[in-house]
Write a structure and sequence with these properties.
mainly beta; 6 strands; 69% strand; elongated
Length: 103
Amino acid sequence: MALESAEGWVTDVSVVAVHEFVWMELRRGDEVLGRIEGPEREGEFECLLEKHGEVLVVAAEFVEGTPETAMKVTLWAGAMPEIVLNIWGEGELLEEVEVKFHE
């Protein structure tokens, strides 16, 4: 069962990267919803996402000298289907993504 509040869905965020990152953030505008400090290749956090969908920003900085790389971000709100985002970048990531859970 998905955990729902009046403000939105309580969402687990799982991150796995091919190469080590210095930091990774999930943002809503200027608000940081979750951050993982590195150097790491993976991590998790929980945040509250809008019920009817929204545009978020996935941002990350990779270790200096990292070639083109990929990061997989999985968002899961309980019984709702997972949203899996595969993002490619070199050095830094700054990608706008639309996230919408379907009931």
